[in-house]
Amino acid sequence: MAAQYTIRASPKQASKPVDLRNGSTVTEFVLVGFEQSSPSARALLFALFLALYSLAMAMNGLIIFITWTDPRLNSPMYFFLGHLSFLDVCFITTTIPQMLVHLIVKNHIVSFVSCMTQMYLVFCVGVAECILLAFMAYDRYVAICHPLTYAQVMSRQVCVSLVSTAWSFGLINGIMLEYMSFRNPFCRDNHIENFFCEAPIVIALSCGDPQFSLRVIFADAIVVLLSPMALIVISYARILASILGKAFSSSRGKTFSTCASHLTVVIFLYTSAMFSYMNPRSTHGPDKDKPFSLLYTIITPMCNPIIYSFRNKEMKGAMVRALGRSSLSQTESV
């Protein structure tokens, strides 16, 4: 991916014509982020985002631990939930630590390679999470609408294959999106009006006509976002029809609670991602991009474990048991 580009890196050079034949190498970008905020506002944001990041890491880490170690949670739903939490940990770690550093230091420069790496990881993990959420909706459909064949349909081997498919599609799709983002040389500016290297903003900085790359990413977003969403909508439409078609039962409330948890996560992630990657760039701006970027990079990963935990009695019981074992082991060590 190493290539020769030309870029206007500072305001003093803005009035000078750009000569691509000089072949100046792009070595860095500037993440504007919250640079315009006052020092007190940045300090407040640092404390807030550090608290949210710590909470997200702790909650997702606890879910990963209990879903992979508690034998009472040995079911496909919790198998998928553990992998969802692992994806959330990967997702927030690619963006938030860097943002926290930039909130307390004046140097907001990132290397060209670092920007590429961060963008690839965001693509890879984000795509994998979208697909995994669709598989989780399908799992709920089979469990509720076909309970007698659930164990056969959602066997351990099938679950592993579905998770592997989500990861594989994310890894491969990330390569294609990475190429489309950096296929053109950069010569307009190197200031990214966000707190991480987000593809549409980076593409807009490239030379020539960025419309082809943006159209490809838009088409990819249709496949990655709308196709899983269609599966989710179909699964939950059939679940709703099945629930309403049955006589009242004590399990109806539990079913609605589980489905509502999953749908809440889906709405958070898909709404923010669709705004970022499926809206025309003319409707975007720093004041609009950053809130939605924050929503799907930190708020959603933080809300996922909270939503699933507080709306699920089995998860709350497993957390209590895990924390109880931890307290007991500490007492015995003392």
From TrEMBL:
Coiled-coil segments on the chain, per record: none
The keyword Plastid appears for this protein: no
A Pfam family per the record: 7tm_4
Domain G-protein coupled receptors family 1 profile: 59-308
Membrane-crossing segments per the record: 43-66, 78-100, 120-138, 158-176, 216-239, 260-279, 291-310
Subcellular localization, as worded in the UniProt entry: Cell membrane
Keyword tags: Cell membrane, G-protein coupled receptor, Membrane, Olfaction, Receptor, Sensory transduction, Transducer, Transmembrane, Transmembrane helix
Topology with respect to the bilayer: Multi-pass membrane protein
PROSITE patterns documented for this protein: G_PROTEIN_RECEP_F1_1, G_PROTEIN_RECEP_F1_2
Main location class: membrane
Function according to Swiss-Prot or TrEMBL: Putative odorant or sperm cell receptor.
Family indicated by similarity: Belongs to the G-protein coupled receptor 1 family.
Protein name: Olfactory receptor
Gene name tied to this protein: LOC110146784
